[in-house]
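Dear colleagues,

As part of the handover before I leave the project, I'm documenting each prediction I ran so the next person doesn't have to rerun anything. This entry is a single chain, and its sequence is reproduced below.
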Amino acid sequence: MARHFLTGAELTAAQLDALLDRALELKRAPLSSRALEGRSVGLVFQQPSTRTRVSFEVGIGELGGRAVVLRADELQLSRGEALRDTAIVLSRHLVALGVRSDADETVHELAAHSAIPVINMLTPSHHPCQALADLLTLREAYGSLAGVRVAYVGDGNNVARSLALLGTLAGVHVAIASPPGYALEADLALPAGARGALSVHSAPLEAVQGARAVYTDVWVSMGDEQSAAARRAALDGYRLDDALLDAAAPGAFAMHDLPAHPGEEISAEVLYGDRQRIWEQAENRRHAQKALLELLAGSS
């Protein structure tokens, strides 16, 4: 049976540790693996993408494989073909399928009918590939992740949820601060074997106490445009700037999954300054995803 990567909770703690170790090796030697030699990986994009598309396409190429990019309007899905039929056909040509969708149900249904691993490249509820890159960035900075506190300030969205799930599995204490109405669910079920902790706060200053990294995301994500004004008003006090970093642990750095809107969720001074590892995060998408592809679809 295919092993999928839909929320990140499919991994064991040991698998996550090994994946991050392998990602560090692949970053040091990007062309050292030919795990996908002569094989093809499908990438379905039902939403626009910059970092996800480039990091997956380049990473698959570095592993010796071929990326088959499929836009929503290029598939028969746009004309009513069943997800089940699509999954069965693609399974006969590909060794793995990445899906970026505006519906969690789409990814889960494709996985249910696929004979190959399905990877969630982003859905409204989860962004697990981003969380892998986040953890890789923290590993590079601090070595062991055990007990490292990371504060996330802003909307309790898919990025926050994936950070909570995979971060606690890796041993991180994830502290999330959001305004009322935008908080991550306090009863979020953590993965089996989680070694870290999750705490939910309303005040950013509470979350960042002792944090060695402070993370944020856009206030208005794709699909939230109709409520943009209300979201900006509610999140106005949740900006990542130098003052908030000063309240964290000495040497703490900023993180952001991008794209960013300087002056909204993050100040330009932090985004382009020397107190961040945001651009390293963006690069680490490629290395972490290559390790994931090796685990799920690599040839023996």
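The longest strand covers residues 40-45. The chain has eleven helices and nine strands.

All the best with the project,
I.
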